[in-house]
Amino acid sequence: MSDSRVSSVIQEWGSSYPGQVHGQVLSSSNQGAPTNQMSPMDMMSYSQCQGIMRGGAEDREQVAFLSYTSGSGGSSHHQINAQQDFSPFLLPSLRAPVSKRVISKDSAEYRQRREKNNIAVRKSRDKARRRVLLTQQRALQLQEENQKLQVKVGQLSQELDTLRHILSQRHLQGPDEHGL
Amino acid sequence: MSDSRVSSVIQEWGSSYPGQVHGQVLSSSNQGAPTNQMSPMDMMSYSQCQGIMRGGAEDREQVAFLSYTSGSGGSSHHQINAQQDFSPFLLPSLRAPVSKRVISKDSAEYRQRREKNNIAVRKSRDKARRRVLLTQQRALQLQEENQKLQVKVGQLSQELDTLRHILSQRHLQGPDEHGL
DNA sequence: CCTGATTGCGCAATCA
DNA sequence: CTGATTGCGCAATCAG
């Protein structure tokens, strides 16, 4: 595991730095047993219904950029929480942003959660990659099989034509009984 | 292809490293028209051959620090930069970390480059998503076609059998002249 | 060298 | 609540 030599350098930024938001640094994950099973039917498509807003992500970044005060008030970013709870009348699905437990980015718990998520992400992406790969291979395989089948259909058709021709000739001579 | 899980380790260093530096590379371009063309055959797989070498490439990475002198924030930390780069003796391809232009993260240029790259990234990923989608659809389509072809082969085979049977019977009755 | 394209990765929001 | 997904930005590379 010569891999990451960075895990130990993570939480230094402890105090006040305006620049970059997340100072991601991780790695050091081992994946002994990738339990990536990938259920049989996993093919889903990309919900491509969000191409309208393009600046959104950036907003987040910008905001984080500015407000990040890694101390205790850490979790900074978008999410305007400014309602008085009339929400129950609007959409049942739109819950008021119940103030979530504020987790400082310094906390060990935070890092712990992050690390777990990072592992999950890697796992998920590995899975996705394998899935794509499998789909590609399947497509190629199907294409091959397809060609073979088409050739076969061609052969059979020709053979049929031949036999039909022969039969039709026999017809002229002694039409006994015939199926088709 | 590149790294593994060690790439993004550098985001905030306050290190003052005279030489070494990596210059991030970005881009500046247009973007009006989504020229996502996706050349005909773009299907390539995930070069999953990146787990073996962990040292060499990394060295270069290790050395990649910028001297980042941020205006407001004192971000500072990490990186063990321990080697002195004797690489020129190893592989001719491993160039000494020629100090690249130091680009402060505050600079407008930096943001500009980042933004360009972000756009490129989105574009590339959109393309990838479409590609995957197409592959999936193609696979499904091929599968359908395959089934149809198999059915057809079955039908033709049966028909052939029938005709052969008929012909063989004719044979028994009046073997005049016959093709096969 | 510069520039756009890729790609692994971490983050955060969301889903399940 | 926890793991899985997913959009996004970053940085390192690759490809011209």
Question: Can you walk through the features of this model?
Answer:
2 copies of one chain form a homodimer. Chain A is mainly alpha-helical. Chain A has a domain of 69 residues. Helix content of chain A is 43%, strand content 0%. Chain A has 2 helices and no strands. Chain A is rod-shaped, with a radius of gyration of 32 Å. Chain B binds a DNA duplex (16 and 16 nucleotides) through helix 1 and helix 2.
Secondary structure: elements and pairs:
The structure is a homodimer of 180-residue chains.
Chain A (H helix, E strand, L loop, with lengths): L55 H12 L40 H66 L7
Chain B binds a DNA duplex (16 and 16 nucleotides) through helix 1 and helix 2.
Tag the structure with descriptive keywords.
DNA-binding, mainly alpha, homodimer, 2 helices, 180 residues, 0% strand
